[in-house]
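Case 534 in the screening queue. Each case pairs one protein sequence with one candidate compound; here the compound is 6-O-phosphono-beta-D-fructofuranose. For every case the pipeline is the same: read the inputs, emit a complex structure as tokens, and attach any notable structural observations.

Predict complex for case 534.
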Amino acid sequence: MSVDTPAWKALVNHAAEQRVQHLRQLFARDAQRFERFSLQCENLLLDYSKQRISEQTMRLLRELAIECDINGWRQRMLDGELVNQTEGRAVLHMALRAAPAEILPRRGTNQVPAVQAVLAQMQRLCESVHGGSWRGFSGERITDVVNLGIGGSDLGPRMATRALAAWQQPDIRVHFVANVDGADLATTLADLNPRSTLFIVSSKTFTTSETLTNANSARQWLMAAAGESEQVSRHFIAVTANPEAAAFFGIAPENIFEFWDWVGGRFSLWSAIGLPLALAIGFHHFEALLAGARQMDTHFCSAPTEKNLPLTLALLSLWNNSFLQAGSHAVLPYSQSLELFPAYLQQLEMESLGKQVDRAGQSVGVDTAPILWGMPGTNGQHSFYQLLHQGGRLVPCDFIALKQADYPLPGHHPLLLANCLAQSAALAFGQTVEEARALGTPEELIAHKVFPGNQPSNTLVLSQLDPHTLGQLIALYEHKVFCLGVLWKLNPFDQWGVELGKQLATTLLPLVKGEGDASGFDASTRGLLATLHE
Ligand code: F6P
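Case 534 output:
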């Protein structure tokens, strides 16, 4: 358990003192606070001066990281040890974006050549689709690509394709269908022509029922137009770590893009799971995304503890959640293009860290992953920010801002940035009774115009949003998750918690269809089944 260690206990004592400090006092006392608590990594800046921390806090947190053997665990991951021990797997997503000459893992079989071979296969596919040589059953070129996948086989490429819409290739549209609700597939297909549509069945396991159900319906839709033509195979690609199952489904061997069990689903954007993204933005830009992530990997593996961006983000998250008892975390990108980033991070952080037992199966002893949520500014300001300002809950926020706009319409970007800075300042410093009075507020409204402030936040500033900086940003959060796993001593790479619901759904399926006996189920489930059958 982390919570029994000397460094953890020192932090508990320190938190009792630090909790009563207000960000107003902390800033008033130290004119150098921004310089002291900000980090730069290439074209990405992290300002964490608005966190409820002191130098002592950061020192104690770093001591905890050392005590948890952060450097040893990172080395074990690089060496290819089975750090995902509950599934008996290595964790090598860094190999997916390694330079061709790099060796990863550092011990054992180098996986980089296999990665490069799949990247070359992806490049060939992108070129043939963009160049128009990939033709459908009737000889038409591909105009639409539909990714059929869910969770890690959907959220990453979907988010990045949305984020990089400014890099969208002409003459190709990429769609994402995840939900087994027929509304998702049916509404997507309604506007598409089977003659010019290419499906990517994305599933690491190739057993996920939502994806396979959607893939079967997509095949029927296609065959309704193409008949039994052998050329139907020109419309289906599989991306999977289970090529046998994809072949059994009927995908032609040359259309199967492989990845490996050492890639976790939520860390798989960089593998062939990124194929829809590469098709959307072009392979060259996909390579720039990989290079951005690689730059963050190099930083993570070489920067000292006090300058290490992912580790710092993790330590601040740990501080807010385990020592200040925040329980919630808002991600607020001031970029419409990053609108899906909070949804992507929900899987990355909550599926990785939402656990109560450590690597040894013992209680972690504290709550782990905060509930992560958010939406882009300024929209959120007119929705839930009221609660952040005056709701009385501690909700640490990550603001994300772009120095340059990706869609530079006159007058828009300065207004967007002014709002971003205004919100983090208002949340941090609030408004006192005296300040409200000085503004001429009528006495009966004073209580309503007081803002307690002291709401902690990070602000991440990217020079611009492009494939390279997006790669850096995503890898930053990936490594943050790894660090939090080390700090809470848990395995962030398994997800046993999602299994029970899957098993129950399998058992309930015949009952929902009106077959079988529901008497073994609880009263609520029986009542709901009866209602559905009325
Ligand atoms: O939701 C559980 C999960 O296993 C995720 O971890 C994964 O990303 C998703 O399902 C999809 O899995 P697959 O890629 O195997 O279809």
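Case 534 observations:
- Residues 150-153, 203-205, 208, 211, 265-266, 351, 495, 498 surround 6-O-phosphono-beta-D-fructofuranose (CB under 6 Å).
- The CA atoms of residues 310 and 476 lie 5 Å apart.
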